Protein 1
Amino acid sequence: MQVTETLSAGLRREYKVVVNAAELDKELNAKLVDLSKRANIRGFRPGKVPVSHLRRVYGKSAMAEVVQDTIDSKSKALLEEKKLKPAYQPEVKLPEDQAEVEAIMDGKGDLAFSVALEVIPDFEVKDHSGLELTRHVVEVTEDQIQETLKRIASQSKGFGDKEGAAATGDRVTINFVGTIDGTPFEGGTAEDVSLELGSGQFIPGFEEQLVGAKAGDEVTVKVTFPADYGVAELAGKPAEFATKVTKVEGAQEAEIDDEFAKKMGLEDLGKLKDMVKERMAAEFAQMTAMKLKRDVLDALDKEYSFDLPEKLVDAEFNGIWNALTGEMNRSGKTFADENTTEEEARKEYRAIAERRVRLGLVLGTMGEKEGVQVTEQELQNALMGRMRQFPGQEKMVIDYYRKNPAAMMELRGPIFEQKVVDSIVAKANVSEKAVSKDELQAMVQDEEDQASA
């Protein structure tokens, strides 16, 4: 193998690799000899097919395999010889001239290909022991527990027949026929529909016009479909619904007591409170961890500045930009609606992409230096978590990840990153600061907004 460096600029490297025809022929012959021992071809005894015959019949297809295997092995050897750490899978280019390709396949020409890549930047990992950090903590209070219990009770409320006019929070049963310019439209007619007034289930303005109605009343509800309504034929159009109220039911709040707890599957109210407190504590702890991790990443971002592999930044930016523009298209928003321009937005999100790539490289290098490992059990736990997001489709999720190593790597990434952050926190000077739930939520939300894509 002959290797010639054709480019060395910044993080970019390119090499020309030449493997002579004799070496390829040697590999081809070895492959055909192995095949001859297993081949079962009519007219020849098993295992006795001459290599010369196999060369005539399978020579080109076998040579294609030899060429691919050679490219893989020589590319790997090149990286090892040059002690290169590629930032992504190197790009390999074969000759474009068809005559040259045919000569290689016929065993009459040397194999020449190029390998292009960007290397992981070389930077010194700094000592972050003694880093000053603050862990913002929230104590679960009795008032918060009661507030949560009331919310649970509200979600579990029942309804009973009510005399008189419907009020916000009551439930009505209605029949309606919707028309646009006097003509009924598809999907605009229904009977025996239950609707909780104030729930926001129907078109804006619909529910409010039923407040004050009694059972037996007929109400003409006039509304305009939102401009971004899911059915394009109705979007932005005024409509009337001839509506008859057949029943009015008043909300009946569940009483928070031992019986209520038993309906929730707990022994008594005390156990229900313990469960609520435990879940709230876990929720607050998660927000605390998110804030602390963000502070660690901010500190690292200030400490490191180095050239980045352009292709990695491009890939990260494209992912962010496609998600952003896709959401804008779905919502019908423009950059002007966000008080910016496309050029300014591109600049902003390019900076976010660069930060993510830089921090990814820093954390990856630190984790490698610290010997951080992601265990099989941790990966399985992450996979189980992903399965829970798709109830009823668990087998499909498992099959997807088993067949896609890249997807498994995506599961591994956040686990590895968190373990590196944890190792930094373990060596840092961490003080605690008590904050309110609202304060912590605001901190986390602000940072999510700043880093969102």
Protein 2
Amino acid sequence: MVDCDNASPEALEYALHMVAQFGRVVLRRGYGNHSTLANRWQEALVRLAFTPCLQYQYAAGKNTADIALALDAMEAMFDSRADTFCLVTSDSDFAYLCRKLRERGATVFIVGEAKTPDALRNASDQFFAWQRPEPSLAGTDSVELKPASPSKAPAKRRPKTLISAVTLLAGDTEDGRVGLGALGQYLKRTDPGFSAKVYGHATLSDMVRTYPDLVMTQEPGTGFWVSLKPKSEPKSAGAVATVI
């Protein structure tokens, strides 16, 4: 469900590629006023088989398209036509809709630009950042769609949130460790935009290996496990080393 008054047509293909990994996309709708859908969005909606949901605004400044999108989303959920939703928007006004859908058991994804407020990001199950493509220097009409990422690889970083997550999840277990998959799911739930690539790592396992305070082990049949490295016992203050 696309907020055409807020999003860009170039984001459509990227959004479809992201949500295709979670299932079949059976409902495709673009919401906007007459001038928006007739001009910028017409070609993209037709080409990608989206149903244009035209909303006439009889008074200036009214959020007619936003209200229609929200009502149709709730209707689709209550009619059991969908249990997973993807909103293409950067408008934080949809944060309440996301929360209501999730309260009813639905899964919600957001595709938005880097400017998307945290209020909307954190109201979703997962946030996908889309970067507006740079204008073509060759003057062609072709557009390259790509996820948000800087021109060069980001520097590798080790956020403290990962240490805190392992401490929390492994602290209540008998063996003091947490599965790598469960760790990744927790990080996604606490920060829908979390990705190891954002911190310069190819995968979460590669990221974990860079932490000197973490230990990752692999067991056949059960996968990877992460735990805190045991702290070495401090030497006694009166101990004297003897060399023979």
Protein 3
Amino acid sequence: MTLNKSILCVALSLVAFSQSSMAKDGTINFTGDIVETPCVVASDSQYQDVNLGQVKSSTFAKAKDTSAFTNFKINLEECNIATLKTATVTFRGTSDVLDTDLLAVGGEAGAAKGVGIEISDQAGKIVSMNKASDDTTLVAGQNILYFKARYKATAIPVVSGHANAQADFQLAYK
């Protein structure tokens, strides 16, 4: 009987070992889209973090005061301009209540108040939230669309806190 118990213990150990060697160590999510557009958005532009940095609340002495700009870009690749030659960008997100051109910040505990995020194109023209930018003429191949963002006071005093926001972007071609 002890021999049978020993064999049973060895067999159970082997089963346990073989199952642990096949344990789940992680997950890989594969994402992407099949698109019918004249350009594809480069993977490094699809999900970006734009760090506007720490800005002192005293920077905003009156409504409409702004912080310094932070540049960001959207890379377009493999552009075929045979039929569609221009693009516009629409930034979609929650507009600030006091200035609907701005992206609202906050939504979480400890959020800043009295400030929103202003997005401008390369020429410095404001791209209002949820509205298309001016047309950008495309060239065949790669195109880089340049933008900049900054904080803008909407009410005084600006209350310090997290000034985070999220916007999606959507391209339209003409």
